[in-house]
Amino acid sequence: MPADDIRALFSRAMSDMYRSEVPQYGLLCELVARVNAQAMERDPALAARLQGERQLERLDVERHGAIRVGTAQELATLRRLFAVMGMQPVGYYDLSPAGIPVHSTAFRPVDEAALARNPFRVFTSLLRLELLADAGLRDEAARILAKRRIFTPRCLALIEQAEQAGGLDEAQAREFVAQALETFRWHSEATVDLPTYQRLRGAHALVADIVCFKGPHINHLTPRTLDIDAAQQAMRQAGLAAKEVVEGPPRRDVPILLRQTSFLALEESIRFTGGPGAGGTHTARFGEIEQRGCALTRKGRALYDTLLAEAQARAATGSPLAEAMAEGFRRFPDDAATLQREGLAFFRYAVDADRLRRAPPPPGADLAALVAGGWLQPQPITYEDFLPVSAAGIFRSNLGAEVRERFDQQGNQVAFESALGTAVIDEIALYETAQAASLAACMRVLHQGAA
Ligand code: OOG
Ligand code: NI
């Protein structure tokens, strides 16, 4: 079975599991489908553009999820598990500046056809125990984690089988999906007693979530909306306690990168070890929606990061963040032509065959002339990744506002990659390659046309 098909099966199985575990997720998916249908009805050009970019057929099944693991070994095995489904680690996200003791990557398909088939992604975080101040607690957490096994033996055997044979047949693939699901399932029994949970929780809410359970429960699954402001409103009307601010860039005519919002975690009953009466609660799971815009070049991303940092600095001195963002982002051009001309966003180029038939471009015409003259049509490339500052906001909404500490260590991509067992793929390089490949293909067509 092609890896892309295994991923589609898995994404579907995760979605079914989460729907039955967290009813609000089902509600959220219905509401997003309704908002998307309305957005396309209102704006037929949007629907046509999405169709052209091969975004439309994937929209209904498009999901991302998130998990958190505790050890290097768990992360390394996850890499192998996701590889069976054609998902590679893309990007490095350092969450420590926001007081969250993890670093992360996103496992996702990378090539265009695979993304069009099913873009399922999993934002995957690794606990950084070294950031915790209390050495005793660090050791205790490490001891607890060392004892657990988050993959079923059969799952491990099927991963090995896939690695050796270069894939799985259909029966094996179905069994693999069922076995892999076990790793991400929710467990209402903790692996520790209540005092241990409380001690770890005292160090950091995230530490308790990662350390005290049998496995890395999927903590949300996110559908993609075409209008996040409308979806946010619909969430509130449906009684879902959406967080105050939408993370990411403010609303624009040409969406860029990623906007996200979530509703707070459910409070779930937990049975701790240590006999009857050892009951308690834990918040882990939540809901989220996202709206995706176009990918930014290194130059565009630098401008985004600068404007975001400036707005945050202003918000820290008392002005509302939403206002500071709206104000600051006036400096970010908001039409596709300028984004293209100034090299702020990535585009996939297509030759306009009618234009070419009427007249070939002048010899030696550069990209700007080819676009201005109508021979090349730029289509924005969708951003398929995540944003560290936004992710921190999503983490916080789930963990409770109490998390505000700073760590004195920086990100450590080298340590992350050594745990993972491979380098992460540079996400911007993927967009550069996609843009360059589309341009090269256009140039071949234009030269044939001219010859
Ligand atoms: C992950 C939070 C980040 C996103 O979409 O940016 C995230 C987590 O809470 O484990 O999911
Ligand atoms: Ni998310």
Automatic annotation (TrEMBL):
<keyword id="KW-0223">Dioxygenase</keyword>
<keyword id="KW-0560">Oxidoreductase</keyword>
<dbReference type="GO" id="GO:0051213">
    <property type="term" value="F:dioxygenase activity"/>
</dbReference>
<comment type="similarity">
    <text>Belongs to the 2-oxoadipate dioxygenase/decarboxylase family.</text>
</comment>
<dbReference type="Pfam" id="PF07063">
    <property type="entry name" value="HGLS"/>
</dbReference>
<dbReference type="InterPro" id="IPR009770">
    <property type="entry name" value="HGLS"/>
</dbReference>
<protein>
    <recommendedName>
        <fullName>2-oxoadipate dioxygenase/decarboxylase</fullName>
        <ecNumber>1.13.11.93</ecNumber>
    </recommendedName>
</protein>
<dbReference type="InterPro" id="IPR047869">
    <property type="entry name" value="YdcJ_bac-like"/>
</dbReference>
<keyword id="KW-0408">Iron</keyword>
